[in-house]
Specification:
Elements (H helix, E strand, L loop, with lengths): L1 H31 L5 H15 L36 H4 L3 E2 L5 E2 L21 E3 L30 E2 L9 E17 L10 E9 L6 E2 L1 E2 L2 E2 L2 E2 L8 E21 L6 E10 L6 H5 L15 H14 L4 E8 L5 E7 L12 E6 L7 H19 L2 H9 L1 E5 L4 H10 L25 H10 L16 H4 L7 H12 L2 E8 L2 E6 L19 H12 L24 E3 H4 L6 H8 L3 E8 L9 H17 L5 E6 L10 E4 L2 E6 L5 E4 L4 E8 L6 E7 L6 E2 L2 E2 L4 H11 L7 H16 L1
Length: 731
């Protein structure tokens, strides 16, 4: 017992000595870096220990063996010296030779991205040798990540090394054995600086200590990097390499800049049933849908397939053509396709206004397949939705832009290739600015030109042929005016949030300011209905996509408080039609790899359905005359809400409202005004609130006079003639 206690005492003293030595070492390191960088530098060191100090079950742990070579580079470890490193069979095969005697690498397997852009790779899996500051740390080295407006903050546009020398590196821990096949790189996203890497080495490891460089017959392979900062550059490895860690070591960079990179790694994770971390994060779907990216012809064929499966509830039509003549196809889903049913609300989803934001397009194509299958299977929820709603799905508003992005591929289009139409117009912000007309009229109360608070007419200048308006935009406007939509969502990408109007700030001197509509509470509920049922939008643990953290508003944001935009589709829809429209940003990655589509569908499926169901919230009814005929264009007003709507051609209307008691009025030109109290409950289903209004006495007189070929004399003209007679009599 005494011996044991002495041994334990010695062991404790040794541990204390080692701890003290470690703290002294960290202190020395902190003194070696600038004060501004100390916290982040130490964080990088401490974070690394958690992942490589202890091996996963089944993995061998190797002591630190890397040594600097003659030029200070990491000496590649031979595979046979490290049994934990498993080269693939293709690595061991001799390379084929061409007729000219040059070696030709074998065709690499089609492995997907590991997920730096989609955030599947967490910040804790990214490490770097040094960093200029926290905002340029390894966690910012993600493909297509965007910098904040104000640089030198926490949200910059790349990983940037703290020093410019060939010993810097950025490393990805895949947390399991992975067959690495390629690397995609970009420079730093910045308005003010130009930084990118022009060449680099790739190294792999199974323990993050002993590294093996990618080699060919001549030695270490030096991969060609970027020639500017935004266009992604793909380099495939000569042969796939199996390891857990991969490291990028910049060798040269833009001479007027510094070492800065954004990247994505291509790799196929190998099966590992013992890896709990991987099994916990696996996402599968049971839906039998076509999970792939569809070009224009494939999209059209898929629509035909859905229509053939469900001919009684679907109809394919087009709303116009793109600049290059491609038809803008839509699918209608209803129990009576092609016909507006009195009392049945109309809903729309559109996607692809920005052609490179592809996820929304594929989600709509998946949604139409899902609804057809579930209707045939007798799913009561879907059957009820289809029987009570007329649904329109327009998956590709900008097919010309999509074609450009599709040809580049899911990871190589950058942030903006295909965003605009063929003639360079951003459809999403190409609508008439009706906000300014409304606000100017409200601010100048004595103005001769009065602007209504709804159905504001489009200005004449916008309708002229010389106006800068895309043909796709004109087609959408005509579609919106033809069909009495009640609720709509336009699916976009690059973020994970639901934005609601107004999208334009009222003040001329601000670029960000919360600018609510009169229906702000309704819009906030609609936004929350989608965000709260999405798998990730309201998850407080998730990382922000780029620079904005929307968790304080539960995954929703007022468009103007985010960034002001004039002429948005949301504001136009609200001020020119009855339709309440929101922008739904469905993912951080605008163009995710095909392998990500099943998980993205699971993330959004319930939200897509719940949002459609909200079209049945509020009040609905028909405005009739005393003979029972519907009155078109009647105005429906809600007391306390300075925004009206109008009835359709059959006299029916739908007014989105949150639960509560409302005083509602119906009026039309030549008719008396009728008012009643309507109560909206919490249960799904709009409250019926019909109106019967009669003609005014003046309207009746006019009708009788017209019937007998006479026109009633106006009161002002009658008075003028009477005064003229009196004047003649006095003379």
């Amino acid at each position: 017992m005494i011996a044991l206690s002495k041994k334990g005492s010695c062991s404790s003293q040794l541990c204390l000595a080692l701890c003290a030595f470690g703290l002294a070492l960290l202190g020395g390191l902190s003194r070696a870096v600038p004060m501004d960088d100390q916290d982040y530098y130490l964080q990088e060191i401490s974070n690394r220990d958690h992942y490589y100090s202890f091996p996963y079950p089944g993995e061998e742990y190797f002591p630190f063996t890397e040594q600097p070579g003659e030029e200070g580079t990491i000496r590649a470890a031979e595979p046979e010296e490290h049994p934990g490193f498993k080269p693939s069979r293709k690595e061991l095969k001799p390379k084929k030779s061409s007729k000219k005697g040059k070696s030709i690498p074998e065709t690499p397997p089609d492995c997907p991205p590991l997920g730096l852009e989609t955030l599947k790779i967490t910040d804790f899996q990214l490490h770097a040798s040094t960093a200029k500051r926290y905002g340029l740390g390894a966690h910012r080295g993600r493909l297509n990540i965007q910098a904040g407006v104000n640089e030198n903050d926490f949200y910059d546009g790349a990983w940037c090394a703290g020093r410019n020398d060939p010993f810097q590196w950025i490393e990805v821990d895949a947390r399991r054995l992975t067959k690495f096949t390629g690397v995609i790189t970009q420079g730093r996203n910045s308005l003010w600086s130009s930084n990118w890497v022009t060449s680099y080495r790739v190294l792999v490891s199974n323990d993050s200590h002993a590294w093996t460089a990618v080699r060919n017959e001549s030695g270490d392979v030096i991969f060609e990097g970027n020639s500017e900062k935004e266009i992604p550059v793909l380099n495939m490895l000569p042969v796939p390499l199996v390891a857990r860690y991969i490291r990028i070591n910049p060798r040269s960079w833009f001479e007027e800049g510094s070492i800065c990179m954004r990247l994505e790694i291509l790799g196929c994770p190998l099966p590992d049933p013992n890896n709990y971390y991987h099994r916990r994060n696996e996402m599968t779907t049971t839906d039998n849908l076509d999970f792939k990216h569809h070009n224009y012809k494939e999209m059209r064929q898929l629509m035909k397939t859905v229509n053939k499966m469900c001919p009684n509830i679907t109809r394919i039509y087009n709303i116009g053509k793109s600049h290059q003549g491609l038809k803008l196809y839509a699918v209608e889903i209803s129990d009576n396709p092609g016909e507006h049913e009195v009392g049945e609300p109309e809903f729309r989803y559109i996607a692809g206004a920005h052609g490179n934001e592809v996820l929304g397009r594929e989600l709509i194509l998946l949604l139409m397949q899902f609804m057809c299958q579930e209707y045939l299977a007798g799913n009561p929820r879907i059957v009820h939705l289809i029987e009570e709603t007329r649904i329109h799905l327009l998956p590709s508003v900008n097919p010309d832009g999509y074609d450009k992005a599709y040809k580049a591929g899911s990871e190589l289009g950058g942030w903006s290739l295909g965003r605009w139409t063929q003639d360079g117009i951003d459809i999403n912000n190409n609508f008439p600015d009706l906000n300014s007309l409304l606000w100017e009229s409200e601010d100048q109360k004595k103005s001769k030109r009065k602007v209504p608070n709804h159905h504001i007419p489009i200005p004449d200048w916008y309708l002229s042929e010389n106006a800068t308006v895309a043909v796709e935009t004109r087609a959408i406007i005509a579609w919106m005016e033809k069909i009495p939509f009640v609720l709509g969502g336009n699916l976009q990408g690059g973020e994970l949030v639901v934005a609601y109007p107004y999208d334009m700030v009222r003040s001329l001197w601000k670029t960000q300011d919360y600018t609510p509509t009169p229906d702000d509470h309704v819009f906030r509920w609609l936004a929350y209905s989608y965000a709260s049922t999405h798998r990730l939008m309201t998850d407080a643990r998730r990382r922000a996509c780029h620079t904005e953290d929307f968790q304080k508003e539960d995954g929703t944001v007022n468009g103007a408080s985010w960034h002001t935009v004039a002429g948005s589709i949301n504001d136009f829809s609200y001020l020119h039609t009855n339709c309440f429209e929101l922008s739904i940003y469905v993912g951080c990655d605008k163009y995710p790899h095909e392998s990500e589509l099943p998980e993205e569908w699971e993330n959004n499926r319930e939200s897509l359905i719940v949002f459609m169901e909200q079209v049945h919230r509020g009040i609905k009814g028909i405005v009739k005359d005393v003979h029972g005929r519907g009155i078109p264009n009647a105005i429906i007003s809600v007391e306390g809400v300075n925004h009206d709507i109008r009835t359709g051609s059959d006299g029916d209307y739908w007014r989105l409202l949150n639960p509560g008691e409302y005083v509602v009025s119906a009026k039309a030109e030549g008719y008396t005004t009728a008012t009643k109290t309507c109560e909206v409950g919490y249960d799904m289903g709009a409250t019926r609130c019909d109106f019967t209004i009669s003609k005014t006495n003046l309207a009746r007189i006019k009708e009788i006079m017209r019937k007998f070929g006479k026109q009633p004399m106006s009161l002002s003209l009658r008075r003028l003639r009477q005064r003229a007679r009196q004047w003649r009599q006095r003379r």
